[in-house]
């Protein structure tokens, strides 16, 4: 197994640490030998990985490899049948799905899952309710996505796909998470919007927000990740830094079925 260095333990460029964060308590988000099944069909076979504060870990694999199930297991939407999931040492397994965001883990699911008949602002305020955050958090999120300022009173369901993805990401960030889980956020987006999201993900390092990212666009994944985990048939088969992976075209072909020039 190729193992990359763990990045992002300290805020870059001297940026202030998140409110309430302490170095002693930042043990990270950890999955240890997690197994999951849908009925009698096993899906995850002993998945182990970790995300440190301020680190971006990208989970790559073919369709059906178990990537989405891994995220759903963290969020309590799928109950593991074995293994442990811990946040700064606290076991998350057994908690209800609505309790996990309150501990500092936010989720941007594939397909966005907005409230289409609510306005953009109302969708964002739903995120603020998780941690009972104030207008300062909303102002910070709108700095990340300034285009949403002009859409605050518009119904979310009338936005373009890219704008809806911005709202979904912004809503998750309104919960002021320590860890952000994102499931294929660039799917179906125009290149300019893909670049906007990539820059946002990179910028979260300054607030020591760890990101577990599922992404199908290889170039995007390698441009934002500190480490990459390659998944196949419910198992983590290899972990590497983007630089190491760039020199192993055989791994990309084997686990993703793609060749990069």
* Assembly status: single chain
Instruction: Give the N-to-C terminal Cα separation.
Output: 24 Å
Tell me the CATH topology of the largest domain: Rossmann fold
Overall SS class: alpha/beta
> Could you give a short account of the major beta sheet?
6 strands, mixed
> Unreliable segments (pLDDT under 50, ≥5 consecutive)?
1-24
Shape: globular
Count of spatially separate domains: 2
Task: Write the topology of this structure.
Elements: E1 29-38, E2 41-51, E3 56-61, H1 67-74, E4 82-87, E5 90-91, E6 105-108, H2 120-131, H3 135-144, H4 161-173, E7 179-183, H5 191-203, E8 210-214, H6 218-224, E9 227-232, E10 235-240, H7 242-246, H8 249-256
Parallel strand pairs: 3-8, 3-9, 6-7, 7-8
Antiparallel strand pairs: 1-2, 1-4, 4-5, 9-10
Name the descriptors.
261 residues, alpha/beta, Rossmann fold, 2 domains, six-stranded mixed β-sheet, 8 helices, 10 strands, 23% strand, globular
């Amino acid at each position: 197994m190729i193992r990359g260095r763990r990045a992002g333990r300290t805020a870059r460029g001297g940026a202030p640490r998140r409110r309430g964060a302490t170095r002693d308590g930042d043990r990270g988000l950890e999955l240890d030998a997690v197994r999951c099944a849908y009925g009698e069909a096993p899906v995850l076979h002993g998945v182990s990985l970790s995300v440190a504060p301020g680190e971006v870990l990208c989970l790559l694999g073919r369709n059906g490899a178990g990537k989405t199930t891994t995220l759903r297991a963290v969020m309590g939407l799928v109950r593991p049948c074995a293994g442990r999931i811990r946040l700064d040492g606290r076991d998350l397994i057994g908690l209800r799905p609505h309790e996990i965001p309150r501990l500092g883990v936010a989720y941007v699911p594939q397909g966005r899952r907005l409230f289409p008949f609510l306005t953009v602002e109302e969708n964002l305020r739903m995120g603020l309710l998780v941690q009972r955050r104030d207008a300062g958090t909303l102002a910070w999120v709108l700095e990340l996505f300034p285009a949403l300022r002009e859409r605050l009173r518009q119904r979310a369901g009338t936005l373009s796909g890219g704008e809806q993805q911005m709202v979904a990401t912004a809503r998750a960030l309104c919960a002021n998470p320590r860890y952000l889980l994102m499931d294929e956020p660039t799917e179906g987006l125009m290149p300019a919007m893909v670049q906007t999201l990539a820059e946002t993900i990179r910028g979260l390092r300054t607030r020591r927000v760890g990101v577990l990212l599922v992404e199908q666009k290889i170039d995007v994944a390698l441009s934002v990740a500190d480490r990459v985990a390659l998944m196949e048939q419910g198992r983590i088969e290899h972990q590497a830094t983007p630089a190491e992976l760039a020199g192993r075209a055989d791994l990309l072909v084997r686990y993703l079925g793609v060749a990069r020039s």
